[in-house]
Each structure stands twice: as C-alpha cells, then as structure tokens.
Amino acid sequence: MHRFLVASARAQPPRKVMAVIDEANVAILNCSGALQSGDGAGRRPVWIQAKREAVVAGGRKPEGSGELVHFNARIEGINYDILDELVGYAVRRAQLSIYEDFAVSLGPEEITPQRFSSLVIIGSNPGISQTRLAEVMGIARSGVVSIIDRFEKDGYVERQASDDRRSYNLRLTREGQKQLKKYKKAVKEHDDRISRGLSEEERLQLRLLLRKLGQ
Which of 6, 79, 92, 161 has the fewest CB atoms within 10 Å, counting from its CB? Predict the structure, then answer.
C-alpha cells in the first residue's frame, strides 16, 4: 500500500521520520489512557513498546531485532480469532496504517499528528490559552508546553501575556501561518491517499461513526 511512499522516505533523514513515528505511537497509547502527557513524554516501558510497534521508515531496524519491521494489517494464513470481531482492534490497525503514511508524508518536517492538530487549533482560535489548548487536545498541560516551546523556537507560535499569570495566550506568527498552509495541503493529500478506497458517502459515514464512538 505504501511502497512508493516508503521508497521516498528512504531519501530523507531516517531519524526525523522515526521520531515522528515514535511520537505517533505514543499519541495512540495516550488516547487509550496509557500515558498522561502527549508530546513524546511517557514511562520508559510504554515508550519502548511504542517504538517496537512503530513502522520502520528510512531503513532503520528496531532495537533487539535483526530484520526490518513492516506493518501488514492482514497476513494470509493467520487466524485472528476474536480480534476480527473487536471494534477497538480494527481501529488500532487502521491507526497504524494511517500513522505510517502520515509519518512518511510529514516526517521530514518533524510534524506529528499532535503537532499539526495544535497548529490548526491555534490558527483557528487566535488567543487561545495553553490550558484551553490542552483541554481541546486531550493531553496534559505539560505536553502542550512542550509543543509550544518547540513551535516558539521555530518561530511558528508566539506567547502573549494573559490575565491568568499561570498561562499564556497563543497566536500563530506569519511564518506559522505560512507553514500551516503548507502542512494542511500535505495532510489533505495524505488523507485522500489513505481513504482512496472509500466513496465520499463512505468517508462521511466513517467520520460520523468514529465521532459517535469517541463520545
């Protein structure tokens, strides 16, 4: 499914791509309640497990293994038993495929799904506080601080003083707006690619069902 994408990823610095894949897997575990913060922070055992589950891009081998790992959602000849009946398992498998494509698409930019979502929320809600952003993202405030620190260093986001001394209001800089526009285009192409097997009606139905599931 991703052969042409993996080939292009090999031309990019593998560490950057792997960092995105590692963080994406931590984000998945974070959503299931396994972690407390979001931007690459977590207990070491879970972090190691996330790395081992990550799909390899750029030809990197997983620790403790002599062969490359490639995620395959369905392997012929394997009896998946009750797993095929579980909604959670199906969603998890879909997540891995989606994050693989996302990492190859934006890995060289060091943009993860979590970082991209943060930029979108800040761009669409100028002046939003760090505390509010953490609530919207569903991650610990410390995770948001880590994300914003990175964006501020890159010149994408600026912090502004607020009435609450414990927090800041956030706004995109001109450079941040420029980069977000580029990232949106790349993510839209990624989204079209991973859902190309679905009709418009099926895409809408899937989004509605997932929203219902996440309520």
Answer: 79
Question: What b-and-e string marks burial along 21-32, b requiring 16 or more CB atoms within 10 Å of the CB?
Answer: bbbbbbbbbbee
- Closest to 147 in 3D by CA, of 168, 162, 124, 174: 168
| 170 vs 168: CA distance, rounded Å | 6
Question: For 85-112, what is each residue's pLDDT tens digit?
Answer: 889 888 888 888 898 889 888 878 889 9
Cα–Cα distance between 99 and 56 in angstroms, integer? Answer: 11
Distance between CA 208 and CA 123 in Å, rounded? 24
* Other C-beta atoms lying within 10 Å of the C-beta of residue 69: 14
Query: What are 214's two structure tokens?
Result: 């996440």
9 and 107 Cβ atoms separated by less than 8 Å: yes
CB burial of residue 4 (10 Å; 0-12, 13-18, 19+): exposed
State the Cα–Cα distance between residues 15 and 59, nearest whole angstrom.
10
C-alpha to C-alpha distance for 162 and 44, rounded to whole angstroms: 35
Q: Which is nearest to 171 in space by CA: 137, 133, 138? A: 133
Rg from Cα positions in the chain: 18
Encoded amino acid at 160, one letter: Q
